[in-house]
UniProtKB/TrEMBL annotation:
Keywords, sorted A to Z: Membrane, Transmembrane, Transmembrane helix
Annotated TM spans: 12-32, 38-55, 75-106, 112-132, 139-163, 183-216, 223-244
Protein name listed in UniProt: UbiA prenyltransferase family protein
Origin species: Marinilactibacillus piezotolerans
Length: 246
């Protein structure tokens, strides 16, 4: 029986549980040497991100795939999102609630950009929100402060998360573009991480074994698959290095 390695990406468990964790885990891992982890806040922040992703998916189905939108379901999700915001305002700070509210407005309103042919602008902004803002906030909920020293560690996330966002807009890439993106993805991440991880950075090339699935497969889900494997590879390196540094 032929095994298709892309089959698991059709599983909602994968779509709704795996990728959103990348928006928080880097900040959480970076916070380990500074403070005891706040498990409750992490869980609620993850739930907050997850709920927003479900709303995003509903809006994607409506604006991109032209499917029917269930207003009732969206409003139920919004109630839980508001409760999450109230928790962060109460437990952490009013400013933290405002930052997360900005995130809500941005991610839920991103498909409105389609009416102004500003798709790439929306994708770029959301990429920054998810890779930098959420992981920085993920660090803050454990430590009570924000450190700009985390930013260099988060920059390598921009390309895979950009690819993921590109995928959600139902866009198709040519093989030549995939070659170019793969080349620059590894070049940029090695350059960015060399001063931090030194020779450990070469562990990032382990994910190149899966490049044929991204470059040679014409299905859009191959983009999702590559961005996930790429990020998981970097997360593994990031975790190992931080544990060694303790």
């Amino acid at each position: 029986m032929k095994l298709n390695l892309l089959t698991f990406t059709k599983n909602p468990m994968f779509l709704y549980f795996i990728f959103p964790s990348f928006y928080l885990l880097f900040g959480t891992i970076y916070a380990i040497p500074f403070s005891t982890l706040n498990v409750i806040s992490f869980f609620l922040l993850y739930l907050f991100v997850l709920l927003n992703q479900v709303v995003e998916t509903n809006f994607r189905n409506y604006f991109i795939l032209k499917k029917k939108l269930s207003i009732r379901n969206v409003w139920i999700l919004e109630v839980f999102i508001i409760l999450s915001l109230l928790y962060f305002i109460t437990i952490h700070s009013f400013v933290s609630g405002l930052l997360l509210l900005c995130y809500v407005i941005m991610v839920q309103g991103k498909y409105l950009f389609i009416h102004y042919d500003l798709d790439l602008l929306a994708i770029s902004l959301i990429t920054l929100f998810k890779s930098l803002l959420l992981n920085t906030f993920g660090f803050y909920i454990h430590t009570g402060f924000i450190s700009i020293a985390i930013i260099p560690y988060l920059l390598p996330l921009i390309i895979p998360i950009f690819l993921y966002e590109y995928y959600t807009w139902n866009k198709v890439m040519t093989n030549n573009l995939k070659y170019l993106i793969a080349f620059f993805a590894y070049l940029i991440i090695i350059v960015l991480t060399w001063t931090i991880f030194s020779w450990w950075s070469f562990l990032l090339f382990l994910s190149t074994f899966f490049l044929p699935l991204f470059i040679l497969n014409n299905r859009r889900r191959s983009t999702l698959y590559f961005s996930t494997i790429f990020t998981m590879n970097y997360l593994t390196l990031f975790l190992i290095f931080n544990l060694i540094s303790l």
